[in-house]
């Protein structure tokens, strides 16, 4: 009776993956099937209300990181191996929005803000707060183009807009781009200095 979860997990993994793996892998790789299968069974049997799949994944990531050393990627989230990363941690590991939600904790700073206290890969302390876009909100992009008088007019209009709405303009856009005077939009502190 105690082995029932293991037996069910093994049958499920075997039914789902073994035939596909055998049809794709040649003889050189078939000896890995037993190891992969036993890992699935082992992890599936560990699942409980206390030990979540995220906790199991984090343990596995930390173990593999110690084995592989300084593995990093800017094109794939190494936590889930499914999506491109969007947030760089101080340890230079990059993670995607979904992994931020899974491994982060909701912040008191606001809705859709998550605190990452440590990297889920190497466990280095990070103290990063990630602000995510709500699923119903498209990104806000501030694009400023032109120099000289045109650039000053744009900055003057932003100053008037900011005084009317009462919110710092630099806190509104998710992305700032531009040429000439617009390049200052990439540095909100410089943009604020130019506006005042």
Automatic annotation (TrEMBL):
InterPro entries: Acyl_Trfase/lysoPLipase, Znf_RING, Znf_RING/FYVE/PHD, Znf_RING_CS. This is Pc43g00010 protein. SUPFAM superfamilies: FabD/lysophospholipase-like, RING/U-box. Coiled coil: none annotated. The keyword Aminoacyl-tRNA synthetase does not apply. GO terms for molecular function: calcium-independent phospholipase A2 activity; zinc ion binding. Residues 77-123 form the RING-type domain. Keywords: Hydrolase, Lipid degradation, Lipid metabolism, Metal-binding, Zinc, Zinc-finger. One of its GO terms (biological process) is arachidonate metabolic process. It comes from Penicillium rubens (strain ATCC 28089 / DSM 1075 / NRRL 1951 / Wisconsin 54-1255) (Penicillium chrysogenum). GO terms for cellular component: membrane.
């Amino acid at each position: 009776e105690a082995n029932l979860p293991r037996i069910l997990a093994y049958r499920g993994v075997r039914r789902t993956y073994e035939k596909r793996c055998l049809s794709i892998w040649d003889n050189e790789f078939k000896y890995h099937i037993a190891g992969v299968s036993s890992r699935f069974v082992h992890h599936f049997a560990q699942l409980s209300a206390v030990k979540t799949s995220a906790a199991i994944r984090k343990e596995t990531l930390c173990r593999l990181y110690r084995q592989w050393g300084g593995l990093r990627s800017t094109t794939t989230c190494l936590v889930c191996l499914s999506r491109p990363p969007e947030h760089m941690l101080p340890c230079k590991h990059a993670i995607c929005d979904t992994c931020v939600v899974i491994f982060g904790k909701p912040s008191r700073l606001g809705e859709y803000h998550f605190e990452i206290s440590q990297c889920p890969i190497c466990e280095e302390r990070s103290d990063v707060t990630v602000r995510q876009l709500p699923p119903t909100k498209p990104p806000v992009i501030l694009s400023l183009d032109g120099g000289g008088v045109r650039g000053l007019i744009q900055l003057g209009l932003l100053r008037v807009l900011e005084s009317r709405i009462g919110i710092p303009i630099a806190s509104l856009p998710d992305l700032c781009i531009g040429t000439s005077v617009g390049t200052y939009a990439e540095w909100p502190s410089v943009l604020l200095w130019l506006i005042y």
